[in-house]
Design goal:
With about 280 residues, the chain is an alpha/beta fold. The chain contains six helices and 13 strands. Strands 1, 2, 3, 4, 5, 6 and 13 form a seven-stranded mixed β-sheet that branches.
Length: about 280
């Protein structure tokens, strides 16, 4: 599975974002990508206006021409596209993504559950759950799920996706990727035996520094001594389209024989996890 991490600087308008993303998708297809992943809330470049009218004018609806364009582009290129948006519904807003398969069909829609309500994202409604979908890669299918940025900090996010069968989690991002956040991504991959692919904005975008990554979830191989580095790709800080590969056969063989993930859980002991703390 070849994934293009679209670590790109944003433009000034939604229309310019559409044009830049379209050009980037065409380039990713030439590079051999099966799927493209954009940073968090690409439609606005993660800009969240405080003014209600400005917010409304920048937001796109789920049936908008903006998203319909990427549905058509995915079909044209025969390449899956995961597009991220400041999304409007009724008179409310969400931080959301939509995944289109290589036929242009929507296979996954997800709204960020763990919104950063302590900052500008307090104007967003959180999503209501975590979802997975089967993605047709041509010769095989892969089950994908999604988290968005701050979702990464909650183990439950990835755990639920794993329990629903996710093999690869796609993570749009917009924050500094430093040792602790990178370690959280590594841990989500390790403890759930799945791959985690993250796309961040590059250096030059406020509070961002690139370092988009792929952790493939395979911590060791029985035929090799010691442990292996699950980080199979880490981008530089600079803007670029970065192509990374996930070996699905290797991951699936590992999941069959190793002990993390779903295999030795004791859910009867986890009751407090569903209680809201005051």
């Amino acid at each position: 599975m070849k994934i293009a991490l679209m670590q790109l600087l944003p433009e000034e308008t939604v229309a310019a974002q559409l044009r830049k993303a379209t050009e980037a998708c065409r380039q990713a297809k030439k590079m051999g990508a099966d799927i493209t992943l954009f940073p968090e809330m690409w439609s606005t470049g993660y800009r969240i206006p405080e003014d209600e009218s400005a917010l409304g004018s920048m937001a796109v609806r789920h049936d908008s021409p903006f998203l319909q364009h990427f549905s058509a582009l995915a079909e044209e290129l025969q390449m899956a596209i995961v597009m991220t948006c400041l999304e409007a519904y009724e008179d409310r807003y969400q931080n959301a993504l939509t995944a289109f398969d290589r036929y242009g069909e929507e296979v996954l829609h997800y709204a960020k559950v763990h919104t950063c309500a302590f900052e500008a994202e307090r104007v967003f409604d959180p999503g209501e759950g975590f979802h997975v979908a089967d993605l047709d890669l041509g010769e095989e299918r892969v089950r994908i799920g999604a988290m968005i940025c701050f979702d990464r900090e909650f183990p439950e996010s990835a755990r639920i996706l794993m329990l629903k069968g996710a093999e690869v989690i796609l993570v749009p991002n917009a924050c500094p990727m430093e040792i602790n956040r990178l370690s959280a991504l590594r841990t989500r991959a390790y403890e759930n035996m799945l791959a985690v692919a993250t796309c961040n904005y590059p250096k030059g975008q406020p509070d961002c520094n690139g370092h988009s990554t792929v952790f493939d979830g395979v911590a060791w191989l029985r035929e090799e001594s010691g442990v292996r580095d699950m980080c199979v790709f880490e981008a530089l800080e600079e803007e670029g389209i970065y192509l990374a590969e996930i070996d699905l056969k290797l991951l699936r063989t590992y999941r069959e024989g190793e002990v993390m993930g779903w295999k030795y859980r004791h859910p009867e002991a986890y009751g407090i996890l569903t209680e809201r703390m005051t």
